[in-house]
Amino acid sequence: MHEYPITKRIIEISEKFAKENHAQEVKQINLVVGEYSGYVASSIELYFEIIAEDSICKNASLHIERVKPKLKCDSCGKLFERKPFSFECPYCRGEGRPTEIGQEFYIKSIEV
Fold first, then answer.
1. At which positions is Ni(2+) bound (predicted)?
2. Each residue of 66-102: pLDDT tens digit?
């Protein structure tokens, strides 16, 4: 449900960007959404279609780059994706710790 206001804000930011660049329409919006960001990419896509309908973003395509969370090994320092129920590093069998990778949420670019 919290995807609605954030999607509305994405459209507002995109409209402002288009107006500042004297553009008549937004062609593409590129987002980065981490799996642990708290936002569901498919819900953003759904709300985008509905909210953008009455804006200069109505013909824009929304591209979402999904980022999987990664752990960092305490022993070897390598990043890796966590397997279910395990923090074990696949490279050295050390223990992995959470990183901020996978928590991202931002507009990467707007094309007008």
1. 2
2. 999 999 999 999 999 999 999 999 999 999 999 999 9
85: left (phi over 0), alpha (psi -120 to 50) or beta: left
DSSP 61-104: EEEEEEE---EEETTT--EEPPPTT--B-TTT--BEEE-STT--
Q: Is residue 75 part of a domain?
A: no
Q: How many domains does the chain have?
A: 1
Give the residue numbers of the binding site for Ni(2+). 2
Binding residues: 2, 73, 76, 89, 92
Judge whether 70 and 99 are in contact, CB under 8 Å: yes
Q: How open is the CA angle 40-38-104, to the nearest 5 degrees? A: 95
Q: Is residue 61 part of a domain?
A: yes
In the annotated binding site for Zn(2+), the residues are: 73, 76, 89, 92
Structural element, H or E, at residue 108:
strand 105-111
Here the CATH number for the domain that contains residue 51 is 3.30.2320.50
